[in-house]
Design brief:
Layout (H helix, E strand, L loop, with lengths): L1 H10 L4 H7 L17 E7 L4 E4 L4 H4 L9 E7 L3 H11 L3 H8 L6 E5 L2 E12 L4 E11 L3 E6 L8 H7 L11 H36 L3 H33 L7 H68 L14 H23 L3
Parallel strand pairs: 3-7
Antiparallel strand pairs: 1-2, 1-3, 4-5, 5-6, 6-7
Length: about 375
């Protein structure tokens, strides 16, 4: 039993557990989400002249923001809790299908329009330096007529801090626009952060490339395998966002202004295409790097075989001469000659030296 466990742990450095984690998604099996013990609700109410920020807002107070049409409301929920989501759904008339998607795990990025709401689901990505892996957090964004509700799994980290700072500026575009622009800004922040994650992954790829050129080993192959799997995570999370943004551009919903669609969402669409192209470039680099590793290993093997072949060739004359004079015949030339030993040794040395000059002249080494 212990022997089997030892073999099992030997496989971990090659990323087999990561493979199971990436490919474990099965749409026929409903995954179970670990609910947060509590949800923290923060609300930003703003217009051109005023901005109000409230933290730790209670569920009962959230319904007060429904009828206030003078300001745009951004309601951010940190921590997915079933009771909190269902209460908000009842207050804002959110459809049950959207509620199920918010509470789901491993959903593919998508956009839906149900009950006068536009619902966007996509993943926020982070790079974990401890294990050199990409982590994802599911983000749900619900666009209403005068409000935006965002649901985050982890409230301790997000990429919306810059957006919060922009809200404090009276001259910012967000303060002068409707809720649809806020929805665009949230999606744009998530997409822009994809490039930061890819830059960090690109640095890892460059370091690995130099390592393979200088000194390839089995660890290099394991690193190639690991980075290749992280690229799968990137591809799986970024590629569907293109369809999501394209759905928003083609949407005829009254919740999205034509100006926002024509200018801003098309800009996000261009960023997503660029991110997809960059992922494909990294994928091509990993394939090239794997070929480079194989070529380096083969080159090293060829060098070893060349040295061993040369040594074998140089020792062949000595072996032949020693074999001839070692035969059990009664009469062998120079067998009883007092200089026979010295003649044999001289031949054993002179012939390999002559072979070295010939090999060197022909450029064999």
């Amino acid at each position: 039993m212990n022997k089997r466990l030892n073999y099992r742990y030997l496989l971990y450095p090659f990323g087999l557990m990561r493979t199971k984690e990436i490919l474990k998604v099965n749409p026929t099996i409903i995954p179970k989400r670990v609910e947060s013990s509590e949800s923290i609700i923060s609300v930003y109410s703003y217009n051109e002249t005023n901005l109000a920020e409230e933290k730790n807002v209670s569920l009962q107070d959230c319904k007060n923001y429904i009828n206030n049409t003078d300001q745009v409301k951004w309601i951010n929920v940190d921590g997915i809790n079933k009771q909190v989501i269902e209460t908000l759904a009842a207050q804002f008339n959110i459809h049950n299908l959207i509620v199920e998607d918010i509470q789901s795990v491993g959903q593919r990025p998508k956009v839906d329009e149900i009950n006068h709401h536009l619902f966007c689901l996509l993943n926020m990505l982070y790079f974990n330096f401890d294990n050199n892996s990409i982590e994802s957090e599911q983000i749900s964004i619900l666009l209403g007529e005068h409000y935006v509700i965002s649901f985050q799994e982890d409230g301790h980290r997000d990429v919306f801090n810059l957006l919060r700072e922009r809200l404090k500026l009276e001259t910012s575009k967000i303060r002068l626009s409707r809720a649809d622009y806020l929805c665009y800004a949230l999606i744009d922040m998530i997409v822009d952060h994809y490039f930061l994650v890819m830059d960090k992954l690109g640095d890892k790829i460059e370091v690995l490339e130099e390592e393979i050129i200088k000194k390839p080993n089995t660890r290099s192959l394991a690193k190639i395998n690991q980075l290749r799997k992280e690229l799968i995570v990137l591809k799986r999370n970024i590629a569907p966002v293109r369809e999501l943004v394209n759905g928003l551009i083609k949407s005829e919903s009254k919740l999205i202004n034509d100006n926002t669609t024509n200018k801003y969402f098309k800009d996000v669409y261009d960023h997503v295409i660029q991110a997809n192209d960059l992922v494909e470039n990294y994928r091509d680099m990993m394939i090239t790097m794997q070929d480079l590793y194989i070529n380096q290993v083969n080159l090293k093997m060829n060098e070893v075989m060349k040295v061993m072949t040369i040594v074998t060739c140089l020792l062949a004359p000595a072996t032949v001469i020693g074999g001839i004079f070692g035969m059990n015949f009664e009469r062998i030339p120079y067998l009883h000659n007092q200089y026979g030993f010295y003649i044999a040794v001289a031949l054993m040395l002179s012939i390999p030296i002559g072979m070295i000059f010939i090999f060197k002249k022909r450029g064999w080494f």
